[in-house]
Specification:
about 220 residues; Rossmann fold; two-stranded parallel ribbon; 6 helices
């Protein structure tokens, strides 16, 4: 199987590429930053012309889109990456006959308070749902793993503490391990796997921060890390 992975140098994308290559599949990663070959250096925010995807999608069996913008900046537009750029890619998939598309979103975007991230991720889900593709939308909760960064890295650091600080007005979370997210993606790439579905990915433990409790972050993250 030959898979194109957008966001292929990121936390989830790079782990998916490593796993698929280990299983004997061919992976082409793509991102704004440099990566180990075979790698395409491109930016979804650039809104490449539809025809520009023809070569990249040649002989590709599936696309995994793990590209994302967590914070808006003059250099990074959530709408350009999540909606406009992704929609051109998915249109090109239809033309090229690449049926299987796995789109990484985030848990809660279908009912959370609208931020630039959640709003555009939800718009991308809706647009993909209209495409004649065997698509799957995955909505992971906070993803925990050794190479985590940002909020996930903060949780991993908290797991090493004997106690958890109190964080008022913080919603409970169900962190999911990176290995479980990767395994889900790999299974959904298999022939005959379900399609045209949106799946929330959450771990088995619900963690709450606002009040003291005997269960710490190490109860989940420490066991897996």
């Amino acid at each position: 199987m030959r898979v194109l992975i957008l966001g292929g140098t990121g936390f989830i994308g790079s782990a998916v590429a490593t796993r698929l290559r280990g299983d004997g599949h061919e992976c082409i990663t793509a991102s704004r930053s440099a990566g180990a070959p075979p790698h395409l250096r491109l930016d979804l925010a650039a809104e490449r012309p539809l025809g520009a995807w023809a070569e990249e999608l040649r002989r590709v069996d599936a696309v995994v889109n793990a590209a994302g913008v967590l914070q808006e900046s003059p250099r990074e537009s959530a709408h350009a990456v999540h909606v406009a750029g992704a929609d051109i890619l998915y249109s090109a998939c239809e033309i090229a006959g690449v049926r299987r598309v796995i789109h990484l979103s985030a848990i809660g975007v279908d009912h959370s308070r609208p931020s630039a991230f959640s709003k555009t991720k939800r718009e991308a889900e809706i647009a993909l749902g209209r495409r004649d593709l065997d698509w799957v939308v995955l909505r992971p909760s906070v993803v925990i793993g050794r190479s985590a960064y940002g909020g996930s890295a903060l949780l991993r650091g908290l797991a090493a503490l004997p106690i958890l600080p109190l964080l008022p007005d913080t919603a409970s979370i169900q962190p999911v391990h990176l290995d479980d997210v990767v395994e889900t993606i790999v299974r959904l790439l298999q022939p005959g796997a379900p399609s045209r579905v949106a799946l929330d990915l959450a771990g088995p433990k619900r963690m709450s921060f606002p009040k003291p409790c005997s269960y710490s972050a190490a109860g989940y993250a420490g066991d897996r890390l």
